Amino acid sequence: MHSAGWKRRSHNGNLEVAMRRFALLVTITTLSCGLASFADAQSAEDQEVLKPIRRLFDGMRKADSAMARSAFHPDVSFMSTGVRDGQTVVRKESLDNFLKVVGTPRPEMLDERVWNEKVLIDGPLASVWMDYALFIGPRFSHCGVDAFQLAKLADGWKIIAIADTRRTEGCKQGPD
Description:
Layout lengths: L10 H52 L2 H5 L2 E13 L2 E7 L1 H9 L6 E13 L2 E12 L2 E15 L2 E10 L11
Parallel strand pairs: 1-6
Antiparallel strand pairs: 1-2, 3-4, 4-5, 5-6
């Protein structure tokens, strides 16, 4: 006699449960390894996309306009947005004016610190979104978000557009 609520299990049932668990474990392990390989490949491509952006920021820190210029396509577009007197303001800048600011000798370094980089790639087009804080020497200037568009050309990835936000309030000054 069997009491209500009790079920009889055979050895075959236990073996079947064990085999299902083993198959699930093998599947999870295989998928995990595959995803790790995909992440590694993705991150290598991401690093290639980020190279011209890092070169730009290195050029800014060194006041080296030639280094900064090498990160850009000649027809790059620069746009900045911010809020002034409660209204959104959009400002366009030229590559030459930007490089003049970067290459002008100054006693204190321009240091754009970035974090939280998000890279999206589709063939020869990439988008990079990152938080930043700009320092002039040790002094905090402003913060915001940089949004880059890049194209993969014969000589590598080049920045074709930058849009950013600029604010002085509600800023993080790093990834902390």
